[in-house]
Amino acid sequence: MNITAFEYRAIDPAGTSRRGVVQAISDAEAFRKVNALGLTPVSLRPTARSTDSAPKPARVGRVRSRDLAHFTYQLGVLVSSRIPLSEGLRSIAEQEKGLPLFPIVTDIAQRIESGQPIADAMAAHQRIFGDVYINTIRAAERSGNLQKALEHLSEVLERTQESIRQVRGALTYPVCVVTVLGLAVFFLVGFVIPKFATMFEQRNVPLPAFTRALMAFGLSVQSFWYLYLLAVVATGFGFFRLRSTRSGLAVIDSILHRIPYFRQLLMGLAISRFSRVLGLSISSGLGLLESLELAGSACGRPRLMQDVDRMTAQVRSGGRLCEVLADCSYFSPFTRRMLTAGEESAELPRMCGIIARHYEQECSHLAKNVSTIIEPVLIVMIAGVVLTVALAIFLPMWDMIKIVG
């Protein structure tokens, strides 16, 4: 069945001229759809034709989290202003021309004009919005709390982006130091030490085993550098492939949770995100089970996801949240007490907000102090590298001085 996009011009009850696009199989159906919007059609003109029963999702580039947060905030403002969704989305699209969000917003506006609910229109771009976002919008549509849900979604996205920015900023310094240190070691071992070793051999200076080992490694780097480069690339590729699977991510997560300082940081980020999404989902009108499932999938930590899966199964079989929290070892006693109090007082969304704010502040403090923790480790690493290279060069040099003397 061919569906045509009709561009219309119509008059609203206030006498204002309106323009838009509806999807229909005929002029008569397009006329009826415009009438259903509360408008009086003045003109209809076909613009494009598709062989599918719904518009195809637009192909877009990478959309950043901050762009999505800004879009959510703009949409919330439009909803609070009681502007029709399709018209408001087109006004947002005009501001996003040339940016990755432009085709997405335009496509959503067209789908809404063709009669789809906003959640279904966004579901065509599930890769961009994600399950949490779409299901929250769908529940908010059903409960009539779309404006409140959009405000909460915007806050969740902004706070999540801020947490990620702080962690990345804290890790930038140590990552740069380790990278430069690795390149320096590669250069010294691969090009400097072999030259000294050749000079010592020409003067019949016996080389210590330590220097011979480093020289052999350096010569192998000179001769087979491409194999080392290939090994680095293969390791990086294998790491990202491992990270893309749930079992692989669980292995990486288990290793990271063995590092004391990073364990606290990762747990704080996971619990704050879990609490934000749980409170948002419940306040938007979703049930406890569905909210738990969404919050568990959004937290990003396999260990917490496993605990939430067990909690969900127990709640589904008739258990209360306060009873099943004891089986979630990932949660701190503070988190369990607050969630229990929230369920008993029927204020679970508010308690989730308190938990999220507590751990966001804690993670912010940890991220600011990460350099203080890592600097001693980096100093020891640099000192070890300098000592290793110095010993490899100066041990045979002392022997050469003895021979010359």
**Measured distance between first and last alpha carbons:** 97 Å
| Overall number of strands | 3
User: The biggest beta sheet, please?
Assistant: 3 strands, antiparallel
Tell me the fraction of residues in β-strands, as a range. 5-15%
What is the rounded Rg?
30 Å
CATH architecture title of the domain at 261-368: Up-down Bundle
The shape, in one word, is: elongated
Q: What level of helicity do the residues show?
A: over 70%
CATH class of the domain at 261-368: Mainly Alpha
- Number of alpha- plus pi-helical segments: 17
Low-confidence stretches: 48-55
Order of helices and strands: EEHEHHHHHHHHHHHHHHHH
| Average pLDDT score | 79
Strand order of the largest sheet: 2-1-3
CATH superfamily membership of the domain at 261-368, which one? Type II secretion system (T2SS), domain F
